[in-house]
Amino acid sequence: MNIAKVVVDVPASQTDRVYDYLIPAKLMDVLQPGMRVIVPFGNRRIMGFVLQISNRTEVDKLKEIQETMDLLPALTPELLDLGVWMGEQTLSFHITALQAMLPQAMKATYKKILVRTGDIPDELQSVFSKDNTALFEQFEQSGVSFAMLQQAIKAGQVELRYQVNSKETKKTVRMLDTKQTTEELQAELSNVNPRAMKQRALLEHFIEEPGPVAQKQLLSIYQTTASTLKPLLDAGILQAYDKEIMRDPYEDRKIEPTKPLELSDSQARALQPILKSILTEKHDVFLLHGVTGSGKTEVYLQAIQQVLDKGQEAIVLVPEIALTPQTVNRFKGRFGSDVAVLHSALSAGEKYDEWRKIQRKQVKVAVGARSAIFAPFENLGIIIIDEEHETSYKQEDHPKYHARDIAIFRGKYHHAPIVLGSATPSLESYARAEKGVYQMLELPERVNDASMPDYQIIDMRDELHAGNRSIFSRELLDQMKERICKKEQTVLFLNRRGYSTFVMCRDCGHTVECPHCDITLTYHRSSEQLKCHYCGYEEPVPHFCPSCESDTIRYFGTGTQKVEETLTQLLPEARVIRMDVDTTRRKGSHEKLLGAFGRGEADILLGTQMIAKGLDFERVTLVGVLAADSMLHLPDFRAAEKTFQLLTQVSGRAGRHALPGEVIIQTYSPEHYSVELAASGDYRPFFQTEMQTRRVFQYPPYYYLALLTISHQNQVKAMQTTQTIVQLLQKHLSDQVRILGPTPSPLARIKDRYRFQCMIKYKNEPNLRDVIRRILHYYEDARKKEDLQIHVDLQPYSLM
Ligand SMILES: Nc1ncnc2c1ncn2[C@@H]1O[C@H](COP(=O)(O)OP(=O)(O)OP(=O)(O)O)[C@@H](O)[C@H]1O
Ligand SMILES: [Zn+2]
Ligand SMILES: [Zn+2]
Hints:
With about 800 residues, the protein is α/β, with parallel strands linked by helices. The strands form 8 sheets. A 7-stranded parallel β-sheet has the order 14-15-13-16-17-12-18, with helices on both faces. Helix 14 (about 405-415) links the parallel strand 16 (about 380-385) and strand 17.
């Protein structure tokens, strides 16, 4: 068994295959599938993943693996299988799929460092310096065998760390220990001056309680300072060293432990079938459809408890913006230090630490955003996807996977159930549940008899006719005033997706566009600049219209800053907390703002998408939605679905506890069914209406979509290539398929590249991936030499 099958880190179609390498003697019996190695490739050294160890090869002269990057597999056998499947499903290179499963810190350039964490065999001692660390090169030069090091790593005596850069320095604590026996220490004690009480106390500590102790802790127990220690260290009786500790970003926070709540009848009914699948190890997919505030989280928690009791592990996915401290605390409160949290706000080093806790089986539950679906557990008992309708579960870069599909792959592998939870399921999932592909579980009412909030739709055109030009309707303003009097709270939601502040000339209607992209520039008040959100171009705000030279150039649209200003003019007594990208940029600020709101330090929480989810505050009795319809006009067949979901989710923040809630929706399209039906709070009528539209226009879930986007600096070239691709598709796909295009993309130019697209609608087309793969292959040269770009998205969520 001296041949390794390796996937190399050269993402290109010619190299998208497995290469054979010879395993050198030093790595024999050390290398395992899932480890990363450095191999010679052409005249370079590159990284690769070992897929398999074998004794067979078809190649005569093999090159040797040069080094190993891991001593424990970075990917489990399951994840290696998943890599193959994901590469095929998403049409991405095998190497890209494998890389996607690892934390960022393992992909970056790094230094490999060994850290001593326990007693190690004598042969290894020489490798480490006094501070218990060693560069990996030091080990390689020492002549000690890899097998011995691997043993020590497996036994937890040594850790292999990747030091990303100087900013990611390890966190250490100073430890004290002694090499002397109790008897020897007793002898030393008799030598110490009887009046040096504190010194004696420290020595006595090591006599009574042998073993290492943190210096800080020891000094505080005996109420003394480092100067007392110094003579003991100088005399070599005690030794000090730095021990690396895992960074736990949540460690400073006090989290109240919670106990399982007594379930309501419907919660108990929903939990039952999940528990059954866990016990019988059956891969079922459940759709938990529960209205906002119906207690879905408690159902998750109790299902996870069962999984842990069985000695298994759990993954919980939560959309990035809902991964608030409140959410995390609910899991940490129940399962304490068994929980790892994978959050994009963590530094690369912190994320890597959390990942390693999973790899080493120090935790049993992983809570995180999309990529947490790759948590390297080996005994999964359940996967939960909360807010399953969220489009952020689809990755927009390669590999363009959907976390739901990955969950189902892993659930099958582990014979574990999947729970998809939402108050507003995606049409796809709800349709599958109706057909019985998924099992439907329903929580139709809120817990504790709390009622759903009352809704009012305000037609903003009426306000305009009545002479109110403000962003606030009279009703909303009155209601906010009332809340301030009653010491209750308001959440104000500004829907900004597809709605931005731009500059327009009142005389001629001219808007300022990006010179490189076909999109209007966005006005940034803080810097008085106009910026392009696609390419980063910026320019100062003009004082005169570039087209007609009039000075009536004004900015339009409504940003949170503008709303806040208006609010302080109209309601000077209101204390407002604004949450948007600007006020939450600093680490921890998100948490601070929400904390302040929770403590009642403000009357109004004003924010964008980031306040739509996961908030559960007792005194919030009013939710106001500004610009409810701003997404409806986007060129996206999911616009109505997204509007309905967002309105329902935001509204769900009101009246979740004893106090009844009220929701005011301001809109220019009060008659649109997504607005009307969100106000009725009923999912089913919306589902039925929307399904009809999807059937008529042949969209998911009736049809699958594939979107090809072709771009080039030359408009004609981009158009002609798309035309040729459409012809190739027509020729090679069955006549069941509908091919639309070529058409210019809704965003017809980005960064000076012209963009065309073609859309494929199909029901069952087994050949599709193969045909597209061949087309990509055909254009490989042009893509490299002529800078042609072809993007394929087999389950598009963004059609721009
Ligand atoms: N069985 C129960 N008994 C008492 N309180 C409960 C019970 N189940 C849940 N709760 C409480 O009800 C509130 C709402 O529950 P939760 O946040 O889980 O709802 P949800 O369904 O996730 O809502 P959303 O979709 O809006 O996030 C929480 O404060 C929770 O602690
Ligand atoms: Zn631009
Ligand atoms: Zn003008």
